[in-house]
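Exam revision sheet. Question 4 asks you to relate a sequence to its structure. Input first:
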Amino acid sequence: MQSYFMQTVAGQTVLDLRQIDRPTPGPDQVLVRLHAASLNRGEFVVGHGLHKGDEATQIGMEGAGVVIELGANARAIAVGDKVMGRCRGAFSEYACMDVREAMAMPASLSFEQASSVPLTFLVVHDMLSLQGKLQPGEWLLINGVASGVGVAALQTAKALGAKVIGTSGSPEKLARLKEHGLDVSVCVRGPGFAAQVMQATAGQGANLVVNTVGGTVFAESIGCMAFEGRLAMVGYVDGVLTAELDLQALHAKRLRLFGVSNKLRSADQRAQFMPEFKAEVLPAIADGRIRPLVDHVFAFEQLAEAKAMMEANQHVGKIVLRMPA
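Answer key, structure tokens:
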């Protein structure tokens, strides 16, 4: 089968399309003939540490397709089922999924839309609900709202009944996201949003902040958080890995800061909250309250072009790779 590998060479990521053997599912896995897989920015950011040194590794983190083979213990799914899930090496014709994470595709979704759900919306569920405790009527601030995670956070927050402030350097992107429920648009790339956040929230500040940008907006995000506010650190596309922390604000406002990452989690830990996700988020996706936003679909041989589009920040929502017929 065909599969994409990537390695870091002199600080730059290099793609390599290889012909390798089709994988065999383990006892608790299913083998999926993938139809689509979506891109995630963190996988292509050298500083995120998802790749070991200069070693070439299979890439792709989430996809959708049809089950063609079952592991010995995989009894909850049948051959022929359409599924979506997190999986290592998703930029391939075939990939294995942990049976606990392979979710039945809602009939309302295309393979391209379904491939945009597993990793992205699980991350969003983690930071908005499991850790962020976002409540109806609360204010959510999303730094970098036009990203894949940013758009999914916007859509999920609106389904939860929250109000959303989003920042982006592109007025065109912000205008598009108004159609998806964005309440307050702040056209700025980097810092410079605090005054508008405080104005929109009547001086109270944001109850939850989702930082997809990194260190350049961290200090200002802390400054415009509400009493007992929470901050989710989910990315650092700006490459800035350190930031000043206002300890007085942290202390006096009883703030809570947390990270959202699967890098160090075991398979059991990643699967732990799948039942909650299936009960709380999947119904909203199935009935259309949440609609995965796919900006652009590239052919399998165009991964380099898809990666370039992501790195140029030309998209709103998700970029997807369609597998060979």
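Marking note for examiners. Residues 118-130 form the longest helix (13 residues).
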